[in-house]
Amino acid sequence: MLKEIHISDFTLMDNLNISFYPGFNVFTGETGAGKSNLMDAISVVLGQRAREDYIRSGREQSVVEALFDISSNDFARQILSLNGFNESDELLISRTISRKGKNVCRVNGRLVTTSILSEFASTLIELQGQHENQSLFVVSKHLDILDDFGALSSMKEDISRKYRELRDIKGEIDRLRNNDREHAQRMDFLTFEISEIEEAKPVEGEEEELLKEKLFLSNIEKISRVLSEIFFITDGDRGFCELSDSILSHMNDVSSMDENLKSSYERFENIYYELTDLVSFLRHYTDGLEFNPERLEEVINRLSIIGKLKRKYGNSISEILTYLEQAKIELAGLCNSDVKLEKLEMMEKELREKLLKHMIKLSEKRKKSAGALEKTVNKELNDIGMGNARLKVAFLCEENPPETRMTEKGIDNIEFLFSANPGEPLKPLARIASGGEISRVMLSLKSALAKVKTISTLVFDEVDTGLGGEAAGKIGIKLQKLSSSYQVICVTHLPQIASIADTHFLLYKSDTGGRVVSLIKELQGEERIIEISRMLEGEEHSRASRDLAIEMLGNRIFNSEK
Predict the structure, then answer these.
(1) Which of the residues 191, 369, 479, 487 has the least number of beta carbons within 10 Å of its own beta carbon?
(2) Is residue 301 domain-resident?
(3) In terms of domains, do 131 and 219 share one?
(4) Is residue 392 within 8 Å of residue 374, measured between CB atoms?
(5) Burial letters 494-517, b for 16+ CB under 10 A, else e
C-alpha cells in the first residue's frame, strides 16, 4: 500500500506531502489545479519516462519520493531480497530529475537503475493513466493484456528468448549460404598470406641481430682504419709499447732501491701486460677483418623482407607470428564451413520443432485464458451498467499453418472485439467504442487484471472520462467495491464518484510570494460538502446543490477520524 508521497519542485508543486489511507482515496479540483501533475509524479517515481519540463521553473532539479507498506506483499519482499536489500516492511522509492540530464533512482536509500525501479513498481501499483485508454486501440497491446491476465508473461519471455536464438542461427545459415563467393575469396587470400609468412620463416629476435650485423658490415673499413691507427701509435718508433717497456725497466731498477715504489711498479707491470694482450687481440682481430659485400647484401635483403611483412601483418615479428596463427585458425574454420553449415541446419530444425511445440502449448493456454478473460470482463461490464455489452477475444489467421505464424510472441495474433448493444455485431474496439465506453472497458480490464496480480494499490486517472449520471454512479460503486480488496486512488471530476470515497483530497492553486503553486488539503465535514456542491453546480452553487451534496455524502461528513 502507498503510505506517503513527497513531491518537491515538480511542475507547480513546490513542496507537497500527501499521506494516503487504505480504502478509496479520491482527488478532485478545478482544471489546472495539478491533478494531472500528481499522476505524472506518481508515474515518474514508478520508473516511467521523466521529462525536463517536469522540473519547476527556476529550479535545477525535482524530487519525488514514495513510501510503501510491503508487510503483506510477499512478491515485493522477494524482489528486495533478490536484489540484495535487507528485509523490511517498508519500501522507499526516490527519483531525482536534473536539468543536467542526470536521473537518480534510489530504493531504500541505495542507488538503482530505472529498470530495477520499474521491477519494484510492477509489484506495488497498477496505474491507469488517461493515455492508457487509447492503448486499447493498439491491437498489438491486446496480446500483452491477455498474457498478463493468464500469468503467461514468463512463458512468453522464454519463447521470445528461444525465438531470438533461432533467428540468430538462421542468420548465420543464410550468411554461410549467401557468401560462397566471398568465402572462397577469403580462403584464397588467407592461403596466400600464410604461405608468404611461412616462406619467409621469420624468427623472434632475428631483426635485432640483423640490424647489428648490418651496422658492422657497413662500417668494416672504418673499423679497420681506426685499428691500424692504434697499431701505429702503439708499435711505431718510440711507440706506446716501446715507451712502456722502457718505463717498466726503469721502475724495476728504482723499486729495488725504494720499498715505497714497489707497489707502483707492480701496478704498472699489470697495466703493461694488459695493454700488451689487448694490442695482441686487436692485431689478431684486425687480421681477420674482411669486407664481405655479398653478406651485406644478404642482410639488407633479409631486413627488406621482414619490413614488408611488418607493413602487412604487424609492427614486430612477434605480431607477425600471432597473425599467422590467427590466419591458420580462420582458414581451418572456413575449411570446415560445410560441416558447420550442416550442424547449424540440424540445430535450426531441432530448435524450430521444439519452439513450435512450446508456442502451440502457449496458444492453448491463451485460448483458455481468453475464455476466462471474456467471462470476467463481461461480468465487470455488467456491474458498471453495460449488461448488454460484450467483449470477445478473437484469434486471427487461425486458418494458416502454425509454422507460418511463428513470431517472437508465439503463433497467436489476437484482437479485442466489442459490441455495446444487443443485435450489434462484434467489431474491432477502436471502430465502435465511445469515450465513455472505452473508459469502462479499461476499468473492467484493470479490475480483471487486479485479481490475478500481487499488487495492492490501483491508481485511476479520470476513469470517468465521457461518463455521467447513472453510469458514473456505477463506476463509483465498482471502485468502492475494489477498495475492499485494494487501496484505490482515483482522480475524478464527477461528484458521484468523489462522494462515495473514504478519503477526499482537494488540489488547488495558490499565489505564494508572486508564484503560483499547487497545494493539497484533506477535506472533511463542511469542506467536503462545499467541494461536492462545486462539482455539482460550479462555484456559484445553490442551496439545492448543497442539500444534494449532503445527501450524496451521507454519514461520511460526520466521520472526521481516520
Answers:
(1) 191
(2) yes
(3) no
(4) yes
(5) bbbbbbbbbbbbbbbeeeeeeeeb
Domain that residue 297 falls in: 186-335
Percent of all residues in the chain with a pLDDT value above 70, rounded to a whole number: 92
Helices 139-149 and 435-450, axial angle in degrees (round to 10): 30
* DSSP classification of residue 88: -
What are the cell numbers at 191? 592461403
Terminal Cα-to-Cα distance of the chain (whole angstroms): 16
Burial 207-237 (b: 16+ CB within 10 A, else e): beebeebbeebeeeeeebeebeebeeebeee
Q: How many whole angstroms from its chain centre is CA 94?
A: 20
Side-chain-side CA neighbours of residue 368 (13 Å): 9
**What is the rounded CA–CA span in Å between residue 15 and residue 38?**
12
Alpha carbons 372 and 149: distance in angstroms, whole number: 9
Tell me, yes or no, whether 58 lies in a domain. Answer: yes
For residue 344 the three cell numbers come to 547449424
pLDDT at 309: 92
Q: Return d(Cα 260, Cα 268) in angstroms, integer.
A: 14
Number of continuous H segments (helices) and E segments (strands) in the chain: 20, 15
CA angle 450, 2, 16 (to 5 degrees): 135
Cell 607493413 sits on residue: 311
Q: What is the separation of C-alpha 151 from the centre of its chain, rounded to a whole number of angstroms? A: 25
Give the helix ranges, DSSP H, for 54-138: 74-82, 114-121, 130-135
Quickly count: other Cβ atoms within 10 Å of residue 438's Cβ: 20
**Per-residue confidence (pLDDT) for residue 435, from 0 to 100:** 62
Q: Please give the pLDDT value at position 193.
A: 92
DSSP characters over 188-252: HHHHHHHHHHHHH---TTHHHHHHHHHHHHHTHHHHHHHHHHHHHHHHSTT-HHHHHHHHHHHHH
**Cell numbers standing for residue 268:** 704498472
**Four-residue CA torsion sign, 364, 365, 370, 372:** positive
Would you state the pLDDT for residue 562?
42
8 A C-beta contact, residue 370 and residue 146: yes
Report pLDDT for 421.
83
529 within 8 A of 57, measured Cβ to Cβ = no
Element (H, E) at 107: strand 103-107
Burial class (CB in 10 A: 0-12, 13-18, 19+), 464: buried
Furthest C-alpha separation in the chain: 148
Burial environment of residue 555 by CB neighbours within 10 A (0 to 12, 13 to 18, 19 or more): exposed
24 and 110 assigned to the same domain = yes
CATH number of the domain to which 80 belongs: 3.40.50.300
The verdict on 199 and 108 lying in the same domain is no
